[in-house]
Specification:
Helices cover 79% and strands 0% of the residues. With 258 residues, it is mainly α.
Length: 258
């Protein structure tokens, strides 16, 4: 509450700089959304910050966060695209591009879980954008994570394997840590096949297991849905754990809002 009062004073201060007013509005907007679940108030503050005009790319990036977390994915994509266009530095542009790609993937994962079709063309765009980011910064693990998920949904085994290795910062499967060596070899055997032909049931469940072993539970869950695997015990345990982890995250966010 103390910080909110300070931010409110800055916004109301006619002598405050545009930079300070916009920083305060962005901070208040995230508080409105994160702690008070007030979607409309958060958006209103961000639109006001945009009208003031300082660091507009960051304002639109904050708006994309609110929209994405509210599962307003199309609006989130629009906001992140605006952030890309307004980015004043290469670093800001890169982060906005990563955010845009992540939103595309999260929308696709959401659609899969609700038995809706997802947009492969948008995922292809995300993959290309993420590859561009990683070509400049191979250690961008968040971009590698999103690239892995996007490539898996596109059935692109080659890119999936490269993204998995990039996430863990390995040059190839021979350099993998001992505790992941078996998982890496499994992925190296299965993923390249995927581009040539559909995976059979054993390959599908083995891929899901390998993703779970490397803690990509949501991607494993999505593939279980796509592959329509409903009776394989180990796969169902992985899906159950992914659901549990997501529920804990949801409850934690709700706790801080209350």
């Amino acid at each position: 509450e103390a910080s909110r009062l300070l931010f409110e004073k800055v916004v109301a201060d006619n002598f405050a700089s545009k930079e300070d007013q916009c920083k305060a509005l962005r901070a208040l907007a995230i508080q409105d959304w994160k702690f008070y679940n007030d979607y409309d108030a958060a958006k209103s503050r961000l639109f006001l910050a945009d009208s003031i005009g300082d660091y507009a790319s960051e304002t639109w990036l904050k708006l994309s966060r609110v929209e994405e977390e509210a599962k307003q994915y199309n609006k989130a994509k629009e906001a992140s695209q605006k952030s890309i266009k307004l980015a004043a530095s290469e670093a800001d542009k890169t982060y906005a591009q990563y955010t845009y790609a992540r939103i595309i993937l999260n929308q696709a994962l959401h659609q899969i879980q609700n038995d809706n079709k997802f947009n492969k063309q948008s995922l292809t765009e995300a993959v290309q954008m993420l590859q561009g980011i990683l070509s400049k910064n191979p250690t961008h693990v968040n971009a590698a994570n999103v690239l892995l998920g996007s490539a898996l949904l596109l059935n692109d085994g080659d890119i999936s394997l490269k993204a998995w290795l990039s996430y863990f910062r390995f040059s190839d499967t021979n350099s993998v840590y001992p505790y992941l060596k078996t998982t890496a070899k499994t992925l190296e055997q299965i993923l390249p096949i995927w581009k040539e032909r559909p995976l059979n049931h054993i390959e599908q469940t083995t891929l899901i297991q390998a993703l779970a072993e490397s803690r990509f539970y949501n991607y494993a869950k999505a593939l279980a849905k796509i592959f329509k695997i409903t009776t394989h015990t180990n796969t169902q345990n992985i899906v159950a754990f992914a659901n549990y982890a997501n529920e804990v995250e949801t409850l934690t966010k709700a706790y801080y809002r209350n």
